[in-house]
Design goal:
14 helices, Glycosyltransferase, mainly alpha, single chain, 318 residues, 4-stranded antiparallel sheet
Length: 318
């Protein structure tokens, strides 16, 4: 059916009026729905500079979509988007193990993507229990000589005869272990993570190989507060790390990560929440900034959709 010109004009005016009544949260969700690609879901961009003044696409990756579904699975994000994100992740693993890229030949399977994406599928009931338990067993066996879970998995998981460890992938692997009741098998990894949150380690500028701000570790560690056992033992450590970071920057991504952590700890962080709300752009998104870089190279990775999802989680989940 074709609308007459007058009817189309009326509908457009009604749509404009509706948008005028939207608050920042509604505008943010509308931005995420508008920019969603049903085939590729959400994708990050690459840039040689952290301000993303110029950017290029990279091969399709799964991490951005996994983060956004984890953040917003219980939110007002469109149910159609959530279903497709779940399908996309379900299509992107091999026996529960994930690589960063959809084309798994580009990088080895790793515990960062596996820990996050598989935990999301488990929580939404989209991963068979047997597959999840088999995958977490492989993650828990992927350790260095100290028993700490390292990043990449065989057959190409050792580079230059070294096992790469990083506290953020460790936090994601540990979350999966907790979710499946296997945390006692990851004690060395848990101790490594907590040690990384201590003031002398947390503030070190070279503490992270892939990620660019301590607030990323703060966020991933705070995700483990979902589990009472971790909460009882380590909430004070996470809180100490948070209090050391509050007021340290006005970057929207970092503000969002700290506000989410404060929400999880039931700490009032109103000043940074207000600053985050003011940072929203007219199209409903929050400004892009890099969340990590590609190893030693100065190639930055990020997207407006990712920062917007973090901001929505921070502001819509108090």
């Amino acid at each position: 059916m074709t609308l007459r010109q007058g009817e189309a004009g009326i509908l457009e005016r009604l749509s404009t009026l509706s948008r005028r009544d939207e608050g920042p949260i509604d505008r943010g969700y509308r931005y995420l729905s508008r920019t969603f690609d049903v085939d590729r879901c959400y994708q990050a961009a690459l840039s040689r500079t952290p301000d993303f003044t110029s950017r290029i696409e990279m091969p399709d990756e799964i991490f951005t979509s996994a983060i956004i579904l984890d953040l917003l699975m219980e939110s007002r994000l469109s149910s159609r988007v959530k279903r497709r994100l779940t399908e996309f992740l379900g299509e992107s693993h091999e026996h529960g193990l994930f690589s960063y890229f959809v084309d798994a030949s580009l990088l080895p399977r790793d515990v960062d993507d596996t820990g996050l994406a598989l935990s999301v599928l488990v929580k939404v009931g989209a991963a068979p229990v047997g597959v999840a338990l088999s995958a977490v067993s492989k993650v828990l066996q992927n350790v260095n000589d100290a028993g700490i879970i390292h990043v990449y998995m065989p057959p190409r998981g050792e580079r230059e005869n070294r096992c790469r460890i990083d506290p953020v992938p460790a936090a994601n692997a540990l979350y999966l272990a907790y979710l499946l009741g296997r945390e006692d098998e990851a004690r060395a990894t848990e101790e490594y993570l907590i040690d990384s949150l201590r003031p002398e380690k947390f503030a070190c500028p070279n503490a992270f190989y892939y990620y660019l701000t301590p607030d990323v570790l703060l966020y991933w560690a705070s995700r483990l507060l979902d589990f009472d056992k971790f909460l009882q033992k380590y909430a004070h450590v996470v809180e100490g790390a948070l209090r050391a970071r509050v007021g340290s920057s006005d970057v929207p991504l970092e503000l969002a990560l700290r506000v989410i952590t404060a929400n999880r700890l039931r700490i009032d962080n109103a000043s940074e929440r207000d600053a985050l709300r003011r940072a929203q752009t007219p199209d409903g998104s929050w400004p892009i900034s890099p969340i990590y870089k590609l190893g030693r190279s100065d190639v930055y990775v990020g997207s407006e959709a990712l920062v917007t999802a973090f901001a929505l989680k921070a502001l819509d989940d108090q």
